[in-house]
Write a structure and sequence with these properties.
Elements: E1 2-5, E2 8-13, E3 16-20, E4 27-28, E5 31-33, E6 48-50, H1 61-66, E7 71-75, H2 79-84, E8 90-93, E9 98-101, E10 104-110, E11 131-136, E12 140-143, E13 159-165, H3 180-190, E14 192-198, E15 203-204, H4 212-219, H5 221-228, E16 233-234, E17 241-242
Parallel strand pairs: 3-6, 6-7, 7-8, 12-13, 13-14, 14-16
Antiparallel strand pairs: 1-2, 1-17, 2-3, 4-5, 5-15, 9-10, 10-11, 11-12
Length: 249
């Protein structure tokens, strides 16, 4: 497993290479990547791309074009819009639905987050409900995408590994997000053996990236999450690096 930054994780499981919410380029709209750029090898050989929702920092068209050969899975209702953008290998997965790819099973699970392309504050443009994903083969892995706490989250667990969002890219968080303390509550519900904070430390607006407050927000959320978690091992991984963990006893 490799945390590539923001919500992008490369997971090798069940004989497949999976990429979540790929953000692979130096810029995402007005945002810049504030950590080292990714080498093409980090997205080489991808079989399956999982998109949690349609916001531009999760469904990022320039990044998707780098992996357009792969099977791209989007929330149910988002497929037609993406196909019109020139992506031929698009499938939809609704909440509670599963797909098989070799020995890997992927199930879409709920997420409490705006599903509008231009959300959360705007409600026009393409819409499809936001989802998370549970990957099952030799392990059971929960990739939350973008979400706040919601009724029924405890039904997802237990899992071997949970990738949980702990911040975003701005000075504040809008609705439908987890901060470090709320993400720690998600750990209590989902009960992973290992928790990995994501959705932090990667993107910022150019004019704010060097301000003292933004530097703290880029550096601290993952560690604040780790300090708040009990009864679970947390692996705080800098964007762009391997997620290292020891096998459980």
């Amino acid at each position: 497993m490799r945390f590539l930054g923001h919500s992008t994780v490369r997971i090798e499981i069940g004989g497949r290479v999976v990429l979540t919410d790929p953000v692979l380029t130096p810029r995402v709209g007005p945002l810049i990547r504030v950590v080292p750029p990714l080498a093409p090898s980090t997205w080489a050989g991808v079989d399956l791309v999982l998109i949690s929702h349609q916001h531009g920092d999760h469904l990022h068209l320039p990044s998707l074009r780098l992996v357009r050969h792969a099977r791209i899975v989007v929330p149910r209702g988002a497929g037609a819009w993406l196909r019109r953008k020139g992506f031929p290998h698009v499938e939809e997965l609704g909440i509670g639905e599963s797909l098989k790819d070799g020995d890997l099973t992927v199930t879409a699970v709920p997420a409490h987050h705006s599903g509008h392309r231009w959300g959360p504050r705007l409600t026009h443009g393409p819409h499809a409900p936001a989802v998370g994903h549970v990957l099952e083969a030799e392990k059971r892995i929960y990739v939350a995408g973008d979400t706040d706490l919601y009724d029924g989250m405890a039904d997802l667990g237990p899992v071997d590994v949970a990738f949980l969002p702990v911040w975003g890219w701005g000075m504040t968080l809008g609705p439908g997000h987890l901060d470090p303390l709320r993400a720690a509550k998600a750990v209590d519900l989902v009960k992973p053996r290992i928790a990995v904070p994501v959705h932090w430390g990667t993107l910022a607006l150019p004019g704010l990236a060097r301000t003292p407050r933004m530097r703290r927000l880029l550096a601290e959320p993952g560690h604040q999450f780790a300090a708040a978690v009990r009864n679970c091992r947390v692996v705080v991984t800098p964007p762009g690096t391997e997620v290292m963990h020891e096998p459980s006893a």
